[in-house]
Fold this sequence. Notes:
Blueprint: E1 14-18, H1 23-34, E2 38-43, H2 46-64, E3 71-75, H3 81-95, E4 100-103, H4 119-146, E5 151-156, H5 169-189, E6 194-201, E7 204-205, E8 220-221, H6 222-233, E9 243-246
Parallel strand pairs: 1-2, 1-4, 2-3, 4-5, 5-6, 6-9, 7-8
Amino acid sequence: xxxxxxxxxxxxxxxxxxxxxxxxxxxxxxxxxxxxxxxxxxxxxxxxxxxxxxxxxxxxxxxxxxxxxxxxxxxxxxxxxxxxxxxxxxxxxxxxxxxxxxxxxxxxxxxxxxxxxxxxxxxxxxxxxxxxxxxxxxxxxxxxxxxxxxxxxxxxxxxxxxxxxxxxxxxxxxxxxxxxxxxxxxxxxxxxxxxxxxxxxxxxxxxxxxxxxxxxxxxxxxxxxxxxxxxxxxxxxxxxxxxxxxxxxxxx
Length: 252
């Protein structure tokens, strides 16, 4: 869409996408690269991240004819503060700026009623989906603030953060918490020209997250979430979409 333009809207910007190796994160990373940003691909699986980087190179080569390097792969576990701090140090040393942070990394909880959920499963979900976002904002927002140019922090939440989710209480709790975090941090960072947004999609069909019994063609796709991200990061500077609820046109 914009990669063929002579002056793509995010040219010269640096973006970080967590969980960029597959599914929604991969689609967001591809879209941001197409819009012109240098996209830092983060996740725990280098192999999956390298596949996303290869897709970015292939897309850029097809559209511009030169296949310029528009991504960097960095292994990072968002549940490990030291890992996230190392990511922040690398970005500061290499790029000296950060314009976009997409907190996408997340996991689902094991199904079943909360009283049967193990403390370990609870910790895994909350540590990834909520604590991990805290670590990323804590480590990376100062870099965005110091660059003086403002920027975007986009947190990928879920409609489960708006509605009851029986047999998925831990996941719902993490997303309700993420929404509250997003609204509050948005107020904290407005004075720094940093716009904090939250996207709450319904069930998204990806090859890694099938939904048996649902019509995949009617479900939301990873590209739909990426489109919402693109809309946020290309809007006029005097406004921002603080929250997007993303639903399928027809119930699958």
